[in-house]
Write a structure and sequence with these properties.
Largest sheet of chain A: 5 strands, antiparallel
Radius of gyration of chain B: 27 Å
Order of helices and strands of chain B: HHHHHHHHHHHH
Largest sheet of chain B: none
Shape of chain B: elongated
Number of helices of chain B: 12
Largest interface: A-B, 48 and 55 residues
Helix content of chain B: over 70%
Strand content of chain A: 15-25%
Number of strands of chain A: 10
Number of strands of chain B: 0
Order of helices and strands of chain A: HHHEEEEEEEHHEEEHHHHHHHHHHH
Shape of chain A: elongated
Distance between the termini of chain B: 16 Å
Oligomer: heterodimer
Number of helices of chain A: 16
Structural class of chain B: mainly alpha
């Protein structure tokens, strides 16, 4: 009879693994994930990852926008347009002591629906006399809407820089638009400026063409200056993967999720399986009361319900990613302990182990030099098989709202999607990619693990 | 006493140790937080009382000391002056949790308006049981027949498809499939409601029907993700049985193939299958929590989800305890059944 510990050489394992199609597929997926991780580390600014849960960081992106490529498939939805001082035609003039600086933005609006919102960020440097800001929109049909005219807030101390944004929800804009209701042949709604400004005056549809948005600053002091002015038209499509309700670019979240998932999956499975391996081999080798005691303890861990206890632990102890990894290890070693104990029971009666014992080698040396190396191939297979479970449990915890709040994970993205009711609102780009990534990552390790297991585990070899 | 009796005792002792260990761990982890919450509640109620009453104070310090004395008095009355690990308090808490006397929840209430943790949990438990027994029964029936079907055609395209499906469906988070189902059947095609909480009040005579209608989508999801690995497990055991001599003998005397597979092989493969079913039933309970949260099914899982959101500690302790008890009993029963059918376990 062949025992589970039958020695298979390393080159033999490699040779057989290369013949396994599913194993190769698993390795290919894993390589793709590692490439993603490298790309994330090089190309995506680390800042975006730290700021994931800071809403202020994501103010310049649109809200719940679909991926940009969806425009190729369906009706042309407005893209997200961000323009700043560089994109503007600037002119200035003097009228006595008053200086006017005008930034004109040409926006070619050629889409089938309206922008989701808009805002005009600006920053200016001024002293005690506040400058005034006036915003006009020149429409393709020749009409001019003056949508905003107000003085900037008074500066607190001396000459300093002041930055702010004019939002489409500004009450002044709505009040100004009331003057133009008569220009429309049908009922318009001033509470949605982004619709009214971009509507045809004859029928209820988008007026396509080139809009000129003019931001004019009136400066009353020669030392005052405008530092920046811009406009952001909120789109309904954005980037490769769209954005979520909190304007976060999902491509960044998905990309950063991959190193986090790999870290969690691999650390938990390696630590858990190695601990289980040593635990089981020691129990099997020592036998008698040690074995009995160790197995009782592992029985207790075996019958603990994982998720409820994980929930309690993260509610009370903490939610940092390292703590979560630690908790997962606590519940992740029992299976390997049972398997390696049963193999160690067979191994310890092998002649070479008994010989080593007779030669007076220490127990530690026998366990680590003679027994554990025999179990290494099985260990690798077990590590690969244990990864998906760890990733799924972490994703589940994050989904329940117990993930590490300082980093984006796929499970957390899905938690946010679930709380915002994304599925019922049809925001598929918020739901599909994170779950697919979880599944693909898990699948890669299952395929590798099963292929390895078929080679090194004689029991599955027979099947 | 026979081997089986000894085994029973050993297992029972193990079960009680596990139950107790979990309970102690839970209370140890949550003890400080619970104390803090209780203390906060006392403080605000005392300050409220002082504000309502007509007691006049000469100085703010006098008022301060008065409030402090009042709080200390109440703290002493309910034994909060001792830490949570003091023997008397600890035993008290353990006994209370065991009979599910967890006091009042901090935020959440039951549908009938009760704030008692016991009432809230007892209201949700049957719905969780309903959803999961229904799904598991369907999975079992499909899994048994599909498993036997592919076992008879080992190596065929059906067999390989089934194995591939089992691997795939195991990698997907069930709750994520649930979100996709909501997207497909509630948003794209308006067949099922997006949230699984019925809108009719529980007192309505049509409530059970409405509940069943809301249950369809979660059940479909659980079955879809679950049956593949089931069939795979059944296939594993049936193939083992089909290799036995007595099956060959049955074939030789001309028993129809269908009868061999579905009657003889399945019947003999039943004990290990039942064990695995019981074990994974207990395991799927964890998944259950998350699925309910994804669908908003009004059971223990959604309650857990809400309690975590509000940090409603008494409810979190209660659910953890109930789930632990269910899980441990399921594992215990599986062990017993398995040992009953497999004599080798008793001896070992």
């Amino acid at each position: 009879m062949t025992t589970a510990a039958e020695v298979i050489s390393r080159s033999e394992i490699l040779k057989e693994f290369r013949r396994s199609k599913s194993g190769i597929a698993g390795v290919a997926i894993l390589l793709a994930l590692i490439l993603m991780t490298i790309y994330a580390a090089i190309a995506v600014p680390l800042e975006s990852y730290r700021q994931w849960n800071n809403p202020n960081f994501w103010i310049d992106t649109p809200k719940a926008a679909a991926p940009a490529w969806t425009n190729l498939l369906g009706p042309k939805l407005p893209e997200h347009i961000v323009m700043n001082a560089k994109d503007a035609a600037v002119s200035s003039s003097m009228e006595g002591a008053m200086r006017t600086v005008t930034y004109s933005f040409n926006v070619n609006f050629d889409y089938n629906s309206y922008p989701s919102d808009f805002m005009m960020p600006y920053s200016a440097k001024y002293g005690s006399t506040q400058p005034a800001l006036q915003i006009d929109v020149l429409r393709p049909d020749g009409k001019v809407f003056r949508i905003y005219f107000a003085s900037l807030p008074s500066s607190q101390q001396g000459s300093n820089e002041f930055s702010a944004r004019v939002f489409s929800t500004d009450k002044l804009i709505m009040d100004s638009l009331r003057n133009y209701l008569g220009d429309f042949a049908y009922q318009q709604d001033i509470s949605r400026p982004q619709v009214m400004i971009f509507s045809s005056s004859q029928e209820n549809m988008v007026l396509k063409g080139t809009y000129i948005i003019r931001e004019t600053f009136y400066l009353f002091d020669p030392n005052d200056s405008v530092i920046n002015a811009g406009i952001t038209l909120g789109g309904e499509v954005y980037g490769l993967m769209g954005t979520d309700e909190l304007r976060r670019d999902l491509a960044i979240g998905i990309l950063w999720g991959s190193p986090v998932a790999l870290f969690i999956g691999l650390t938990v499975s390696i630590a858990g399986v190695l601990f289980g391996l040593i635990y089981g081999v020691v129990a099997g080798y020592k036998g008698k009361r040690t074995d009995e005691g160790l197995m009782r303890i592992s029985d207790i861990f075996y019958s603990l319900p994982t998720l409820p206890l994980l929930i309690i632990l993260s509610v009370t102890v903490g939610r940092s990613i390292f703590l979560i990894v630690g908790f997962l290890v606590i519940f992740g070693w029992v299976g390997m302990a049972k398997v390696s104990r049963s193999i160690a029971l067979q191994l310890k009666n092998m002649q070479y182990v008994e010989a080593a014992k007779l030669m007076g080698q220490s127990d530690i040396k026998i366990v680590f030099r003679h027994m554990i190396p025999q179990l290494l191939p099985l260990t690798f297979a077990s590590i690969a098989i244990a990864v998906p479970g760890a990733i799924l449990v972490e994703a589940g915890l994050s989904f329940l709202g117990l993930g590490d709040p300082s980093i984006p994970t796929w499970g957390q993205i899905l938690h946010d999607a679930n709380s915002a009711g994304a599925a019922a609102r049809g925001l598929w780009w918020w739901i599909a990619p994170p779950g697919l990534m979880i599944a693909i990552t898990g699948l890669a390790f299952v395929l590798i693990g099963n292929a390895l297991d078929a080679i090194v585990n004689p029991r599955s070899r027979r099947m | 006493m026979g081997g089986f009796g000894r085994f029973l005792i050993k297992r029972s002792v193990n079960m009680i140790i596990v139950l107790f260990a979990t309970l102690v761990l839970t209370i140890a982890l949550l003890g400080p937080a619970m104390d803090k919450i209780l203390l906060e509640a006392i403080r605000s109620s005392v300050i409220e009382q002082v504000n309502q009453s007509n007691i006049k104070f000469q100085t703010p310090e006098e008022r301060e000391t008065f409030v402090k004395n009042r709080i200390d008095l109440q703290v002493k009355n309910i034994g909060l002056d001792e830490p949570w690990y003091a023997p008397k308090r600890f035993t008290n808490t353990v006994l209370k949790v065991m009979v599910l006397d967890l006091g009042k929840s901090s935020y959440l209430t039951s549908e009938s308006g009760s704030a008692k943790v016991q009432d809230i949990i007892m209201e949700k438990l049957p719905k969780t049981v309903l959803l999961f027994t229904t799904s598991i029964l369907i999975i079992m029936v499909i899994g048994l027949y599909l498993g036997a079907f592919v076992a008879n055609r080992a190596g065929s395209i059906w067999d390989r498809l089934n194995s591939a499906f089992a691997v795939f469906s195991n990698s997907f988070p069930t709750w994520w499939i649930g979100m996709l189902m909501i997207f497909a059947f509630a948003f794209t095609y308006h067949i099922f409601p997006a949230r699984a909480t019925p809108l009719t009040p529980p007192s309505d005579p049509l409530y059970p029907l409405d509940l069943l209608y809301h249950m369809i989508l979660p059940v479909i999801t659980i079955v879809l993700v679950g049956f593949g690995s089931w069939a795979y497990t059944v296939r594993y055991f049936v193939i083992g049985i089909l290799g036995e001599d007595y099956i060959a003998a049955k074939r030789a005397i001309g028993v129809p193939e269908k009868r061999i597979i579905y009657s003889h092989a399945l019947k003999n493969a039943a004990p290990p299958i039942v064990t695995v079913i019981a074990l994974s039933l207990a395991g799927s309970l964890s998944g259950a929590i998350i699925i309910e949260a994804a669908f908003g099914w009004p059971g223990m899982g959604s309650l857990y989800y809400q309690a975590i959101g509000f940090l409603d500690i008494p409810i979190i302790v209660g659910i953890t305890y109930v789930l632990t008890v269910i899980f441990i009993i399921a594992v215990f029963l599986a062990d017993i059944v398995y040992a009953y059918f497999d004599p080798r376990v008793k001896v070992a």
